[in-house]
From TrEMBL:
Keyword Signal on entry: yes
Assembly and interaction partners: Homodimer.
Gene3D superfamilies, alphabetized: Allene oxide cyclase-like
Pfam families in UniProt: Dirigent
Annotated protein name in UniProt: Dirigent protein
Function: Dirigent proteins impart stereoselectivity on the phenoxy radical-coupling reaction, yielding optically active lignans from two molecules of coniferyl alcohol in the biosynthesis of lignans, flavonolignans, and alkaloids and thus plays a central role in plant secondary metabolism.
UniProt KW keywords: Apoplast, Secreted, Signal
Protein's UniProt keywords contain Aminoacyl-tRNA synthetase: no
Localization (cell): Secreted, Extracellular space, Apoplast
Gene Ontology biological process terms, A to Z: phenylpropanoid biosynthetic process
Length: 207
């Protein structure tokens, strides 16, 4: 009886976590990761393309991003130098879609005294679709007013272990009054597929 109650409790916890929109990953235990690395030399690099929209809507409650730290001089700096913001913004496959496919979670810091530019340290957590439970990590520079911004993809987890590639972002929508914005993001990168794990002979995904 006790075992049944524990199993039911665990099932409820899992469902509640899933309902929050943050998916549980596949097996990422130390043993599973070590086994993956023992086969890594046989893995096939697979060109993968992802396209989605990041909704940084700060006028809602709770906001998608909030300032957590700033230098004393930030208020008078034309580039807001020294402002640090934490982000948990939903990802969608369309700019006006209510269906969430993941979250961008991390930090961006206004890091230039000459132009409006941020240092971004962000994990893209996918909670729906083929890559549910996997993440991609970026670390790079974002010149906010540039028409196109490019940044490196430096790694990932789950299906995206050892991922390397490039992301680009353009502004799809911005509201200068509220501070809301939506970014149109394209990722092009290589992930590594173990033999027998994927049947696509062209080694190319597109979402």
């Amino acid at each position: 009886m006790m075992r049944i109650m524990v199993a039911l409790l665990l099932a409820i916890v899992v469902m509640n976590m899933a309902s929050l929109g943050h998916a549980l990953p596949d097996d990422q235990s130390p043993a599973a990761v070590e086994k993956w690395f023992t086969q890594y030399s046989n893995a096939v690099p697979k060109l993968t393309k992802l396209h989605f929209y990041l909704h940084n809507i700060v006028s809602k409650n709770p906001p998608a991003s909030v300032a957590i730290a700033r230098a004393d001089s930030t208020a008078t700096s034309p580039t807001k130098f020294g402002l640090v913001t934490v982000l948990d913004g939903p990802l969608a496959d369309q700019p006006n879609s209510p269906e969430v496919i993941g979250y961008a979670q991390g930090l961006f810091t206004l890091s230039s005294q000459e132009e409006l530019s941020t240092l971004m340290t962000i994990n893209f957590v996918f909670t729906a679709g083929e890559f549910k439970g996997s993440t991609l990590s970026i670390l790079g520079r974002n010149v906010v007013v540039a028409p196109v911004r490019e940044f490196p993809i430096v790694g990932g987890t789950g299906d995206f272990r050892m991922a390397r590639g490039i992301g680009t972002a353009t502004t799809n929508y911005v509201n200068s009054t509220t501070g809301d914005d939506i970014l149109d993001i394209h990722f092009v990168f290589y992930r590594f597929v173990l033999p027998g794990a994927d049947s696509d002979s062209e080694h190319k995904d597109e979402l």
